[in-house]
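Reopening closed ticket. The problem is back. First fold of the pair:
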Amino acid sequence: MIEKGFPRFVSREEIPARGWNVLREDLPTPVAVLRQSALDNNARWLRAFTASLGVDLAPHGKTTMSPELFARQIESGCWGLTCATAHHLEVYRAAGVRRVLFANQVIGRANVRSVLAHLSDEAFELYVLVDGIEGATALAQGAQALGLRRPVPVLIEIGAAGQRTGVRSVEQGVELARLVSAQPRLALRGVETFEGLYGHAPTEQGLAGVEALLRSCVELAEAIDAGDSFAPGEVLLSAGGSDFFDVAALRLKAARLSRPVRVVLRTGCTITLDHMHCRAAFERIRQRDANAVLPQGSLQPALEVWGHVQSAPEPGRLICNVGKRDVSYDWKLPAPVWWSSASKLKSMPPGHATSALNDQHLYLDSPPDSPLRVGDMVGFGVSHPCTTFDKWRLLALVNDDYDVVETVTTAF
């Protein structure tokens, strides 16, 4: 085995027995690690949250694309997983996932054929989005070509003007619902939206946009119900984002339909959180928890990337052996959280900040009295875990002493 962050010629199965420790420098850097205690904490917290509100969780697996983490999420009580591409779905199915919400439009013959072929397994549940008659027709034709014995379960997506996919009004959604319900190859099972569109908007503006979008989602579901266009069975109402999942849960639960409703949240980054954007979003959720719907405790960042100080070329400038090939930088630059000298873990002192990244180098600005020296280790937190996971095929699962207890793989 040759994988970044691990010694060569060691199989993955051997790693837990090796007794390796990250801080003892048993692994070559850079190396990505997941803190086991944070993952366990986040699973418990999310389970308590969904149970308290009577909603379900189908986290977006594209955050990690890790079969081992998929299994953890399902074992912790998640209703299913969310995907967005045909490749995602193939990975999920190979990992044994039995229920998937395909939160995207499926267009193109090969995509439609690949996705719908899984419905030949009668024990597998799949829900697909539509936002126009073209997409609905493509699904119906694909189902007919495959000779599927059951209709394709679909959800109508409602979006917002100027944003990405989704019908733009309740009226458009109702008309599409009539067309879908008249198609025997399709079964209209619910309504969906993505409130995460407003995750980077200023707080008040973003919250107003989210409230309006969720209100439209509920209105559309109630209008379709009134028109008797839903297929028999429970109705799924779903929203997916990591910034406003509290608001989504409360607003969708308020829908009043003539049949049972299942609310499914699709938060993706909550399994690992992060040290910046998602952590700040979660703190905003805690601050607006006027109705005390949140359980005790908190989500915790689980993902870190560790490297070494490899050069101190001038005062106030340290260079670490971590770069764009190792950490996300699309939202914010990585933040130094920990440092270690002689295997001793310490919090990063104030005044240290990442100012730039090259492919394999990180520029760490530091105060004149920085205690860090060449050869010391630095643990970085990230913003946007999705685009850190996709840079690694193998990550170390560590305990709180940074002993490597297991590994997880990714399949991007």
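Second fold of the pair, where the issue appears:
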Amino acid sequence: MKRLLCLLLTALMLISAAACSAKNPQTQPEEQTGNPADAQPEAQDAGTEAQPNDGTDSAVSIDDLPIQPIENPPIELTDPVQPIFETEGKTPDVSGYGDFSNLLSAAILSGTKNQNLSPISVYLALAMVTEGAKGNTQAELLKLLGCKDLAELRAVCGGMLETLSIHEENSTLELHDSLWMAKEIDGAPVAFREDFLKALADTYRSEANAVEFGTLSAAQQIADWINEQTRGKIDVKPEALHFDPSTLAVLINTIYLKDNWAETFDEKKTAPDTFYGADGETTVDYMHRYDKNAVIRQGDGWIAYRVYLSWVGYVTFVLPDEGVKLESLLGSPEAIDKLLHAGINRNCDVSLMIPKFKFQDKMELTEVLKALGLKLSFTPAADFSGISDLPARIDSVLQESYIGADENGIEAAAYTMISVRTTAYNPVELEKIDFHLTRPFFYAIETHDGTVLFIGTVTEPSVSGQN
């Protein structure tokens, strides 16, 4: 009898599940297929027809546009290690660079202001730090970077650095890495692990430099290197780089990109028009083009269009539908992924109108990375014994970037800098002594070699004209 009841119960559960499934069919949006690298810019051929432009000719070089520097303050979190995106109490699983890029972008981009982020620069900088991590600290970093071990991470990063390099007449894409090592800390020389140095040199093609942190000279050398690798687009001042004597190492990745549009914009058609921003209306210079037989992707509340570059690939522009706020389309890794890959393709002719723009951005990523799962790396419990014998932790993660677009193409640059600080540095607190010249005193004025120029005593400082 009990067996019969169990069979009847199982049958009822199966019938109920089937009914629910029929009421809620899963539909997937049609996605673009094919390798983006194989996409041809013919779909955006504007050479045959151009849309008339009634505006006055007012072509302006991008170099004449004012740069808008932005410095985003650290993200305020009630609990700095609380995950930003909740998925059953855990941060989302990351499988490779694509997931990491979506995760970081969703955590950073608000949609309410100008922001520019280079996820790949952050990824490579974190990967270099991972080479010096051990135990749970390494596992934590590998999880965020979406790799099961160092071998997989090296394969991913080595492949990026190998393939993402372009040096053509009008197209450049460069990634550079560097390691800056402390010569000594608290008066003692610092020895770095040979395996760590070899991994950075072999996989990341990293330069290695020894400096004296805490001096203006070290800051100047690092600033000069960043400025050189970013072609002067990010003017880093040495005074802005603060490294105290407890700094063990600084790891930096830079990226520089400059490429022409596959089909450039006619400067004669550039004209001023209104931009309806969150803070009101402004007049900006717009580039105009007419693309025949092109492809638009349409999603829920937005449309997307790819403008192809000569060598690097393309720029995906996403426009919210009228009445839809940009910030409502962001906010999660899945939302970012949809804007880049989902939607339904529609063949059409496209009247293209893009504002000329350029700005700089600067953001401290420490709190964001803590919220994305790096709980150990920033604490004294971190294990970076793969770098040196000295106990150390990540002190800060900073990215500064530039982006600009004009009729010819696009130019962008960024650097990500990770400072690793030793936790063993404890300056000796010296005895405080009051040296107050409140009694008669002696003095001597001497040259550098000890030659006395003046010598005397002061018994009454207020007396003057005494013979």
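Update: turned out to be a display glitch only; the data is intact. The longest helix spans residues 2-23. The longest strand covers residues 280-299. Please close again.
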